[in-house]
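Much of our argument rests on the idea that a fold can be written as discrete symbols. The amino acid sequence and the backbone structure tokens for this protein are reproduced below:

___
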Amino acid sequence: MGGLVVAAVMAATMSGWAGGGDLLYPARDRYEPGQEVTMVGYTADVAEQDWRAAEPFYAWLASEGSPDRTRLARVGIEAPADAPDGRPLRVGVTFRLPPGLAPGRYWVDVCDAGCDTYVGWLMGGPLSVGVDPQYPVVREWPLTDPAVRWLADDALLLGPGVQVVTAAQARSGQLPEPLVPSTSPPPPAGHPAGQPAGDPGGDGDDSGAGSEPAERERAAAVRTGGGGAEAGSGEVLAWSVAGVVLLGVWLAAWRLRPRITVR
């Protein structure tokens, strides 16, 4: 019975995620004022949406409950060959937080200059500044994404077969058994999950100066182009953890997303 309940929660979570929108995820769980931020998200290329004609797109910062938002930097949009099915567009941005920004939980949105057009189903993502995130950050990126190589070893990713893995596992290719069989092969063992290329810094309108060499190198990666029928207690526990994490992230994202107007 427990396995059926968990499976139902997971199915509802994933279908709600697909229907509601895709998220932009930060490379770090927590940032401090003045630090350089990297965020990446994947989304659908909606046929009837003429987003290419509305370029360029920007990242906008808003605090929880605020009616205003501030433009941060230009984002990069590409369609990498290893993008997941149904979400072929990769949206990446790097920007520097204002030094005097008050600690709190913020929302980073992505839209054009007038915020009349969005990219695919991307609805932005939460960003924790000076405080810990309310829920674990589980990045829904391909394990081959260039930004994976810069994540902390214990940073979490959603791996093949609805499994939550660490960045260290993704980089080494030493992944646990998937909860759901997957046809996507993991990265080869001993090979880094991604290689950096391109310039993530956007058009430089708000990136700021004085970034650390390691942060600049990290930023260079951003804008580049089996389970059987019977489940044991360990598998049920893993399903439960994955379901709670994904559901928590989804609910938090919808709760934190402010209704905001361009300032």
The chain has one domain: 23-262. The mean pLDDT is 74. The chain is about 20% helix and 25% strand. The helical segments are 2-20, 167-172, 213-219, 233-256.
